[in-house]
Write a structure and sequence with these properties.
Elements lengths: L17 E7 L4 E7 L5 E6 L6 E2 L15 E5 L8 H11 L16 E3 L13 H9 L18 E2 L9 E2 L2 E8 L2 E10 L3 E2 L27 E10 L3 H18 E2 L9 E10 L3 H24 L9
Parallel strand pairs: 5-6, 12-14
Antiparallel strand pairs: 1-2, 2-5, 3-14, 4-6, 7-8, 9-10, 10-12, 11-13
Helix pairs in contact: 1-2, 3-4
Length: 307
């Protein structure tokens, strides 16, 4: 299992996966859309106690619909879920979706972060979701304070003076011919560390007591994992678990009452892969994507203007 600097070290290294951003520097928010080739199988796991999401129930074991057309990660808290409407309309126009007697119905799960602190009353909606969809490409994913990570912050656990900008990151590895990639939107109440335990935002490895006014804070870390290995939903759920383990290692504390931490996993290929090796790869790429989100935001990150 290795990651090479000479290749696309982002989730679009997985064959057929496309990512697009819509970013507003003015309003401090944005939308990120991931498109997946079909057929595929999707799953999700939520561990935070304050999630904002759409269509996640459909991704549980035993549900009839197995595949999705796209995934929306967005700012705007619950208001931002409207961004998925624009993606659904774009997919409908392209004739993509779950087949029904009256035409295809696009399946587009969505999850949000709370970034209302800096949005000036503006929240992404259907227009912004459609624009992010139209910006989708298979190019390496722009990272930093871009897309859904534009208004992301961390470290509120230690109070307002400790807050640091974070953002969006991505990473990928090759596991014996199968590729596993991750994209993370990092907006936790806790501090961020590398997988090896090095601090990226300050704070102690073992968090102390929370800031006294923390109850007013709302945060979330979102992770999307994709692989071109052929997996069943039950196996994909193990990738979700390992990606959530990476969140717990890199974010301290994670999965709190104030976070809506969620992981999505999609199998969109026919490559052969050992589920155990793929699970460990999911752990690594989720952790590296979280690190990249913070490091690239510290360095200025990418900026994609409104279109």
């Amino acid at each position: 299992m290795r990651s090479e600097a000479s290749w696309n070290d982002s989730i679009t290294a997985v064959r057929g996966v496309e990512v697009g951003h819509w970013t507003s520097a003015e309003h401090g928010t944005g939308v990120t859309v991931l498109q997946f080739p079909e057929p595929n199988v999707a799953a999700s796991e939520v561990r935070g106690a304050a999630p904002g999401s759409r269509e996640t129930a459909l991704l549980r074991p035993g549900m009839r619909v197995q595949q999705i057309q796209a995934l929306v990660l967005t700012g705007g808290s619950a208001f931002g879920l409207a961004a998925a409407d624009g993606v659904v309309r774009e997919l409908e126009a392209a004739g993509r979706g779950h087949p029904t007697p009256n035409g295809p119905v696009p399946i587009v799960p969505a999850a949000v972060i709370y970034d209302l602190r800096g949005t000036s009353g503006f929240r992404p909606g259907a227009r912004e979701g459609a624009l992010a969809f139209r910006n989708s490409s298979r190019n390496p994913v722009p990272v930093g304070r871009v897309g859904a990570g534009r208004g992301a912050t961390s470290s509120q656990w230690r109070g307002p003076d400790a807050v640091r900008p974070s953002g969006l990151g991505s990473a990928a590895v090759d596991v014996g011919g199968a590729v596993v990639g991750a994209l993370a939107v990092v907006n936790p109440v806790g501090d961020v560390f590398t997988l090896e335990g090095s601090p990226l935002t300050g704070g102690d490895p073992v968090p102390g007591p929370p800031f006294s006014a923390l109850a007013a804070r709302t945060n979330t870390t979102l992770v999307a994992v994709a692989t071109d290995a052929r997996l069943r939903r039950t196996d994909l759920l193990r990738l979700c678990v390992r990606a959530q383990d990476a969140v717990a290692v890199c974010v301290r504390p994670a999965h709190t009452r104030y976070d809506g931490d969620a992981v999505f996993a999609v199998s969109c290929g026919a490559a052969e892969g050992n589920p155990d090796s793929l699970g460990e790869a999911a752990f690594v790429v989720a952790g590296r994507a979280i690190e990249t989100a913070v490091l690239s935001s510290r360095a200025g990150g990418s900026e994609i203007a409104e279109k």
